[in-house]
Design brief:
Elements lengths: L2 H7 L3 E4 L12 H13 L4 E4 L11 H15 L4 E5 L6 H13 L3 E5 L9 H17 L4 E4 L4 H7 L5 E6 L3 H11 L4 E4 L3 H8 L5 E4 L6 H12 L3 H20 L5 H11 L16 H14 L8
Parallel strand pairs: 1-2, 1-8, 2-3, 3-4, 4-5, 5-6, 6-7, 7-8
Helix pairs in contact: 2-3, 4-5, 9-10, 10-11, 10-12
């Protein structure tokens, strides 16, 4: 994936894909491919696989590679694919996976490993060296992910193949990151639309769309308002759709990710199930979630 092409692809709504599972725990790659087709048919052209949204923690690396292959095959050159690494991988594992992604024609998003936490040269120099090592092994663009000091982020943005940053480390950090590197690389938002509107003021380029693969009209209405610089209209869309959904999902007893996964089933994209011991929504909880979308006007009542 040419770095310049990847950078441009991040400046728009980005579809963050799940991994689907059958109730017995088997991967459902067919539903994943169909979600890619549905999204492309509805004019979305950038896909993202991440450790969180794509359920890496519930899968082996071999299974993650199968997910990547399925998405790239389904996209079939019609869209840009960006693939993240996992939180607990070590340097050589990350490099080997990045080569695999590059060979498939996708871009790679390298998550700062959990074992590398901390600031100062003893922590940061090995992290910088790891990103340099990845860059030396691949031809594709590289996207940063994780929380870095501004000094380290500034250094990383000077690596020629580093073209983007997935921001999900908090508002204050987001502001500082945009100020530090926003004029050099494409920073996109990994949270809710209101956080993208906040970042837009300092040059944020794109955002991860929750509604794109569910109700594409919501994402298109929001992006149109952003392009027209009608931020009040964009904010009204946030209040109508994002806020009710995230209020329900974040406060849910089973947590955000089971609710997000269940949303795909409600809209017919793929099954709700996650692998044990991760909880999945039961039928009563599914009905309550469906009511959230009914009240938004995105679905009809069951009797309608």
């Amino acid at each position: 994936m040419d770095p310049e092409r990847l950078q441009a692809a991040l400046a728009q709504p980005i579809i963050s894909l799940p991994t689907y599972f059958h109730r017995d725990g088997r991967q459902d790659l067919l539903s994943l491919s169909r979600t890619v087709d549905f999204s492309i048919d509805n004019d979305f052209s950038t896909f993202l696989l991440t450790a969180g949204d794509s359920n890496y923690e519930l899968q082996s690396e071999t299974e993650i590679r199968a997910v990547v292959q399925a998405v790239v095959d389904a996209a079939a050159g019609r869209a840009t694919v960006l693939v993240g690494t996992a939180l607990h991988w070590w340097r050589d594992q990350i490099i080997d996976f990045a080569r695999f992604v590059d060979d498939l024609g996708a871009g790679v998003m390298v998550l700062r490993p959990s074992a590398s936490g901390g600031n100062g040269p003893h922590f940061e120099d090995p992290v910088f060296a790891m990103y340099e090592a990845v860059a030396a092994q691949v031809n594709c663009g590289i996207v940063l992910n994780g929380q870095f000091s501004m000094g380290l982020l500034d250094r990383l943005a000077d690596i020629p193949q580093v073209i983007g940053l997935k921001e999900d480390a908090g508002d204050a950090w987001c502001h500082d990151a945009l100020y530090t590197v926003g004029d050099r690389i494409s920073v996109f938002n990994g949270g809710q639309k209101w956080r993208f509107l906040y970042g837009l003021l300092w040059g944020m380029k794109g955002y991860m769309s929750s509604f794109g693969p569910l109700a594409p009209q919501v994402a298109h209405q929001f992006w149109h308002a952003v392009q027209q610089k009608d931020l009040f209209a964009a904010a009204r869309i946030v209040d109508t759709y994002d806020n009710p959904f995230f209020q329900h999902s974040i406060s849910h007893p089973k947590g955000f990710h089971p609710v997000r996964q269940a949303s795909f089933e409600i809209f017919g994209r793929g099954p709700r199930w996650l692998r044990a011991p991760q909880a999945s929504l039961d039928d009563t909880e599914m009905a309550a979630l469906r009511d959230v979308f009914v009240h938004m006007g995105l679905l009809k009542t069951e009797s309608a």
